[in-house]
Amino acid sequence: MQASVNKYVIFFGLLACFLGKNGPVLGQLSELNLADSLFTIGKYSEAQNIYEKYFENIKKYNPNLLLKLSFLAEKSNDPAKCLYYLSILTQKTPTIKLLEKMSQVASEYNLEGYNFNDFSYFLVFYRRYGGYIPILLLTLGLYVVVVMFLKVKSGDFIQRRHKWAVVIYLMALFGLLNIPNNYQTGVVKKEETYVRSFPSSASPVVQKIKKGNKLTIIGNRDEWNRVIWNGEIVFVRKDDLWII
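Now predict its structure.
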């Protein structure tokens, strides 16, 4: 009898531990199911609030959730959030259709940073096959280095320009491999954001830009981001941007 009681105590103890650790997760999943139901019956405002809360808490890539959030943001006339969610989606699964949609929304609201051009095609290609390109280039570079080493070892003459070509190739390859680490973008999240010449509130204002514009971030200093805007290197406060 005592052994049977002990088994029940252990079972319910383990169950309580499981629910204690996973309770918040289960609660969030329940809320997400509720949001899906609200979305299905057309109660978009209520669904949007739950989706946004869930996304802020989880911060996990979820393409279906991002598509719904972008749809709801566009439906509520919030192009900045729509473009923000689409930009996150494009970072992971870039498609020409997504880029065209972003360009269309940006054009409709007169927002900059979403131009669909040859560079956009390059980004789609690079992000899709970026994992294979460095391997291919590294293999080619290694092959050339090995061939040159064997030639030197066998006493064959190698012209200086060929040596320099290999060095430049390897340096360019190193730069290419570091592009993903240096390249970052941000969407302006405040109605009026000041772009300044230097990282200081006392610095002259270069321009006042509106919510939804996208900037290229190339560095940071204290509470400021160093960005490129209209071909110039300027500064914007970190809390003025949604980082993608």
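Confidence is low (pLDDT under 50) at residues 7-16, 18-27.
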